[in-house]
Amino acid sequence: MAIEQLGYSVFFIALTSAIAAVARRVNDKLSKEGLVKELIFEAIAAAELCGCCFELIIVADNFGVATYAVFLFTLTIWWGLQWGNATACPYTYMEQIVQGEVSFKEAALKIWAQLMGGCCVYRYVQLYWWLEMAETHEGRAFEECAADLKVNLYLGAFIEGFATLCCRLASKVISEKDAKFGAFIDSFIGTSLVVAAFNYSGGYFNPVLATALKWGCAGNSALEHIIVYWIGSCAGAVLSVPLFKTASFRNMFLADKAKAE
């Protein structure tokens, strides 16, 4: 595949990121501080995440998982710098519910905003694919999608859950240690786990992302999708909260902090 074809994907991802950056700035200036403003930020972040990841499917299919990994690693760092308090991921708020940091109502509204942003962005992606400026986009705008789950339903849920647990624990450790290159380390760990799970469950580790990209695709029923990508991932994330607080875990990964405490 010619490298110029990759340029169309780079352009789309850059355009999507630029539009999201402008939308965030407009929301910051025009919206009053409060829940509504936060909901809009979540919708923008989810739209940017899912819009870029739709195009990353094109990259993976045509240029390989290694190229996909480089893009994902770079984008993860970018999103960490740009999104502020938005997460574009439901289980971060589920963790906060467990810790008593946010109400169920507020968490539900933010998850709803994420789903709206993530699912509605497909029309924008579809329009770009429909133009078929690149060979890699030919026939993709109205193509029937296929599920990424290539293993047993419950093994897929375990993979998504265990990888999410590892991601969340790594993020918490990096955050508490305030590592100098924390963003790069966190992105590397997350990207590595995605690549490791890519040919088994798809390696989404984010229910909104999985739903926006793969809900209704041939190969999985709605219930199977929920079990693997919602229950699996969210269970892993919620489990990370008490596990991170255990003495054995902290002694293993936060020895200096544990002694100071």
What's a quick, concise take on this entry?
The chain is an all-alpha fold and 261 residues long. The chain is built from 12 helices and no strands. It has helices spanning 3-30, 35-63, 65-82, 90-98, 104-120, 122-131, 153-177, 182-197, 207-214, 222-245, 247-253, 255-260.
Overview of this protein structure:
The protein has 261 residues and is an all-alpha fold. The protein folds into two domains: 1-143, no CATH class; 145-256, no CATH class. Helices cover 75% and strands 0% of the residues. It is built from twelve helices and no strands. It has helices spanning 3-30, 35-63, 65-82, 90-98, 104-120, 122-131, 153-177, 182-197, 207-214, 222-245, 247-253, 255-260. The longest helix is centred in the N-terminal third of the chain and has 29 residues, at 35-63. The model has no long low-confidence stretch (mean pLDDT 94).
Major sheet, described briefly?
A: none
Low-pLDDT residue intervals, each spanning 5 or more residues: none
Rg on CA atoms, Å:
19 Å
| Share in β-strands | under 5%
- Provide mean pLDDT, rounded: 94
Number of strands: 0
Helix segment tally: 12
What string gives the helices and strands in order?
HHHHHHHHHHHH
Structural class, from helix and strand content? Answer: mainly alpha
Helix content: over 70%
Q: Which outline best applies?
A: globular
